[in-house]
Task: structure prediction
Amino acid sequence: MQSSMTRLELNILGCGSATMTPRHQPSCQVLNVRDNLMMIDCGEGAQLGVRRMGLKLMRLNHIFISHLHGDHCFGLLGLISTMALLKRSNSLTIHTFKDGVELFSNMLDYFCRERPFEIRYNVIDTHKRVIWEDDAVTVTSFPLIHRVPAVGFLIAEKPKLRHIIGDETKRLGVPHYAMNSLRQGKDWTSPEGIIVPNEQLTTAADPAISYAYCSDTKFSRRVIQNVKGVDWLYHEATYDENLRLKAHKRHHSTAIEAATVAREAGVKQLIIGHFSKRYLDESLLLDEARSVFPNTRLANEGLVIDLNESEVRG
Amino acid sequence: MQSSMTRLELNILGCGSATMTPRHQPSCQVLNVRDNLMMIDCGEGAQLGVRRMGLKLMRLNHIFISHLHGDHCFGLLGLISTMALLKRSNSLTIHTFKDGVELFSNMLDYFCRERPFEIRYNVIDTHKRVIWEDDAVTVTSFPLIHRVPAVGFLIAEKPKLRHIIGDETKRLGVPHYAMNSLRQGKDWTSPEGIIVPNEQLTTAADPAISYAYCSDTKFSRRVIQNVKGVDWLYHEATYDENLRLKAHKRHHSTAIEAATVAREAGVKQLIIGHFSKRYLDESLLLDEARSVFPNTRLANEGLVIDLNESEVRG
Result:
């Protein structure tokens, strides 16, 4: 079944918090949607993560920046400079707040002025709205609660096409031009006027998967509403429960709070990240989160998750 | 002998060229002068290099930027943000071109506005002149030949003090207050009016060491003049001899050109770096350089060189 599914993979390039450490890079992820790459946040060293994970820079056409803290965007400069050196030609769209457009366009116009490709900016704000869509997915921003304006991103696959039952369409002599209509769920009428119900000629479409990214944010009921029922949730879990006050003060979440969002929103799977550098490993955070929401896994640099999976593997 | 010498160590944090690779970071070095740290260039990921090499950020008070290409300065943003998180209080001086002051102060005022320390900017240009000095060293800029304004840095220890011969000063009853004068090479006159020559009471001072950094630059006779007789020379060697035309076109040097600078300038030791990412290892560059100047070594991330050494070790 899985091999017939359309590719939808999450690549974790960085899941540390503000300071780079030998263990963790700052925030950066790449979602591979049918071999088109979308980057979510772009901390320092993102270009190295791309290279280490063997991702094709030329297939990366959209970068979404959740908020303007350095650990979520300082990698843009090096990444885009490298794209210019590689003689990229297709345009790149950066989805970011207005201040980010001004700051980064200023830097890139100086350091990367001879780039052979266009950079487009899509100005986002903290409203919930569709900020981008193509044939495969819709990307919706929604507000997070942080020290500066911040948004989460909900990436939802559009409904997929039904699968043709080849033996049956062949037997009935369904012509090639009718296939798209069948895939969309319509019945087929033969030249003789006989209506063949769609269910006889196709099997169900693969499920459309949804993924939500929430980093950085304080625990919030509003976030729960906005990620209701998603298949996969990435939620920051900067601190353990002993540091809940610190988390609140700095507008971050604890692992238990992240897991509470997952449970209350009824998501299928939770990935936690944005770990404080104080943890030598994150097993404490994982244990705490699993006590509330068992279907939790830790993010880690180099981790690739097939979002078509219905069960957590690792 | 060596243990009595004042500390002078070169730490290589990055010696790759424009693109980060898993093998090499972009340009960044830290010179440890008697436990005061000076950074030369600050490519992306510099803060991680500092951490990996166990260097104390609080002891880093000066950053010298050779030119405004991203692979020599994009690390400033993350490094300085981390300094702010660590609650640094002492001021930091960045020595850079005028454009760099404008660009980086603009970014840092946004992303790092609540920093608890002052950033001072020392505006440099392509003239040869002393841009900074303290009790231990003088830092002189001199012009390089690159696609944008660029300078090399010559860091020269000031003459050191002579060593007291303790047994002799004790025997003659030289008082404590006279010691500094002895260290500076003056004779001592006893209360009885007897002049004791300095050579009887002291041994020679340790040699004052000099280090020159030349990256990025085309081969240039003028550079040779400016690094004449230094003890240690770091010179870029981006390409091998087969790519000499490419080197010239991009205003870079080949390994043989770097070695020619070292030989013609009569330096004691050469370190080559700023390697193109095309080399899986740099033995070709080392072999080529050594054919012209045997006393050459390759830079590498994590390498620490005691500049008091008189011989290349590795």
